Every structure is written in C-alpha cells, then in structure tokens.
Amino acid sequence: MDSIYTYLLEFGSMGIFAAFLVWQHLSMQKRFDRLVDKFQEQLEKIRVESKAEVDDIRTRYEVILQKYNEERTEIRVALSGEMKECSQKIENFGIILGGYESALEEIQDTQKENRQTIESSLAIMQEMKQEAKMIALAKEMAKKKE
Description:
Elements (H helix, E strand, L loop, with lengths): L1 H9 L2 H133 L1
Helix pairs in contact: 1-2
C-alpha cells in the first residue's frame, strides 16, 4: 500500500488528483450501487402493491360476475315460467274461443232459420193482406150490386 502512495506522491498534484478520481469513482460506484439497490427495492414494493391491487380488482370483478350470472339465471327461470303460463293461457283462450266459435255458428244458423221463418211469415201475411183486400173488394162489389 505504501508503494502506491509513493508512486502517487512522485507524480505530484497529478498523482494526488488521480488518487482523488479513483477514490471518487469508488465512492460514487458504492453510492450508485446503493441507489440501484434502493430503486430495485422500490420497484419490488410497487410490483407487490400492484399485484395486490390487481388481485383485489379481480376478486371484486369475479363477485360482480357471479352476482350477474345468478341474476341472469333467476331472470331466465322467471321468464321461462311466465312463458309457460302465457302459453297455457293462450291454449285455454283458444279452447274458449273454439267454444264461442261453435256457439256463434249455432247462433248464425238459428238466425238464418229465424230469417227464413220471418220471410215466409211476411209472405203469408202479404198473401193474407191481399186476400183481405180481395174479400173487401168482393164485399164492396156485392154491396154495389145490391
């Protein structure tokens, strides 16, 4: 070690300046190494925190999705039940309409029969009216002859 000092002192101020630069380089290297280590520790801490946040977000997202899927399943089941109920009501309504349709056809048939009866009754009444007119004319003529 002493030999290094003697060499540096032989070179004068340049030797001392060279020693200073070596010392400064070594101390700066140590400082830089500490900064790099500290920076890497901070990065690791940030990575761990970030991972924890991502895991938290993922957990909340999964809970929300699970609730959404449960609600969707409940809605599908409810809609399926309502559709079956509506289908049953439509079938019952069709049966009722079928009964009304046959009743309506019976009413139409009865109405046709009643119309025919009324028309025939009107024809008979017109004939009777004409016969009554003829009888009245015949009586008038009989009175005039007398």
